[in-house]
Amino acid sequence: MRNDTEKKLLTAVSKLAIGTAKKTADSACVFLGYQPKLPKAVNKLKKH
Q: How far apart are CA 31 and CA 34, in angstroms?
């Protein structure tokens, strides 16, 4: 029971982390007016 709950919690946290990283990376800079590329560290979080 505990192992299953931990797995669900870790899955939810990882989805939240990837979503937040994508949202942050996809936002445009207000001062410079450009959108930076997605960092390589964010790509490593995704399963290929």
A: 9
The predicted pLDDT at position 48 comes to 52
Q: SS3 letters for the chain?
A: CHHHHHHHHHHHHHHHHHHHHHHHHHCCCCCCCCCCCCCHHHHHHCCC
Rounded to an integer, what distance in angstroms lies between the CA atom of residue 13 and that of residue 6? Answer: 10
CA distance 32 to 40: 22
Closest by CA to 24, choosing from 41, 10, 38, is: 38
- The predicted-structure confidence for 8-19, as pLDDT tens digits, reads as follows 999 999 899 888
pTM to 2 decimal places: 0.52
